[in-house]
Amino acid sequence: MLHRWAADLAHRPLLFGAVPTVALTAAALLSVVLVGAVVVRARRGRPLGVVFGSVSALGLLASLLVAAAVLTNLTVTRYPTVALALGHAPVAPVEGHGRLVDLEVPGTVSHFTARPATVYVPASYDAGADDLPVLVLLTGQPGHVVDWIEGGHLAQTMDAFAARHGGAAPIVVVADGLGDTEANPMCMDSELGNAATYLSVDVPQWIRSTFRVSSDPRSWAVGGYSYGGTCALQLAVTAPSVYPTFLDISGEDEQRRGTKSESVAAAYGSDTPANEARFEQTTPLNILSRSSFPDSAGAFVVGSDDEEFRPQTERAFEAAVASGVDAHYSELPGGHSMQVWAPALEQEMDWLGGRLGLLD
């Protein structure tokens, strides 16, 4: 019975629900009690003493460490459970594991300087499967492709999907749409670099020449969160023949690098009326308002507590529907963090699998 209780505790969620609430509340109460005890003794003129002082200091340090660990995990979302933090595999039944490989994707056409991509290769590919569908994933900004691997638990999500569907899974390429952790090329072609051409031309060409993947655009999708979600929508509307399916998680309604004036100046060197008009022609809502996308489909997911990005994701969804995109919208508990982004990918995998031809 004790073993069963410990196992259940190890697999309780650390990212939402009772565990983080109880841990933060306990840490806060212990801190208040210890600080209060020290203050009372000081006011009464009583020395702390070696034992009491040491216990108080250690207790306060432990409280601060617990609070820091919980808040860091909630923000970065590296470990959804204690079991995973200790290195134990998820409870989901997985038959065969894919592998992760880091590879350089050259900017042959765009001349965009990107960091290496991380590719999830499903077990079925190594067993000889060909014509596999492709999912290109993008990160937030600041960010690195490893964010989808560690915080986003990409391999576990794909392995679990394959286990539910007879081993079927896509090739997943986590591409670098930034160029550097702090860079923000706004997923467009500009003086900041030709990020759009890199992601819509160089990356697909490289994937097709490197892996046995489908050449049918209906088997290709692009997705991402935050900056990556905005970028996924941008690519879907500027290159619909490449990415007719997209997943926009917590994305903005247009590319941004500060204010509109700052964004225009960063992209084209100065904020002039001509450059602002040029910039407007590249924003997703503008493109959706003047074009029709009857062959495209998209999923929009955002955190219910994301006060800044939720209204923007809603506007993008409404504009997509108005332009003929077969789109759906959903909210998940949480704010602008991996607490939403990782579960969003898992939630939408069956829909993506159907769009990409993986499911009968």
What does this structure look like?
- The protein has 360 residues and is of the alpha/beta class.
- It is built from 14 helices and 10 strands.
- The chain has helices at 2-10, 18-43, 50-76, 82-85, 123-126, 146-149, 154-164, 195-210, 227-238, 260-268, 273-280, 284-290, 310-322, 338-355; strands spanning 99-103, 117-121, 134-138, 171-174, 189-190, 193-194, 220-225, 245-249, 297-303, 326-332.
- The strands form 2 sheets. An 8-stranded mixed sheet has the order 1-2-4-3-7-8-9-10, with helices on both faces. The chain has a two-stranded antiparallel sheet with strand order 5-6.
- The longest helix has 27 residues, at 50-76.
- The chain starts with a helix and ends in a 5-residue tail after the last helix.
- 42% of the residues are buried.
Explain briefly what this protein structure is.
It is built from 14 helices and 10 strands.
Shape summary: globular
Average predicted local confidence, pLDDT: 86
Physical arrangement of strands within the biggest beta sheet: 1-2-4-3-7-8-9-10
* Rg calculated over all Cα atoms: 24 Å
- Strand fraction: 5-15%
* Largest β sheet strand count, sense and barrel closure: 8 strands, mixed
Q: Quick one: how many beta strands?
A: 10
Secondary-structure element series = HHHHEEHEHHEEEHEHEHHHEHEH
Write the layout of secondary structure elements.
Blueprint (H helix, E strand, L loop, with lengths): L1 H9 L7 H26 L6 H27 L5 H4 L13 E5 L13 E5 L1 H4 L7 E5 L7 H4 L4 H11 L6 E4 L14 E2 L2 E2 H16 L9 E6 L1 H12 L6 E5 L10 H9 L4 H8 L3 H7 L6 E7 L6 H13 L3 E7 L5 H18 L5
Parallel strand pairs: 3-4, 3-7, 7-8, 8-9, 9-10
Antiparallel strand pairs: 1-2, 2-4, 5-6
Helix pairs in contact: 2-3, 7-14, 12-13
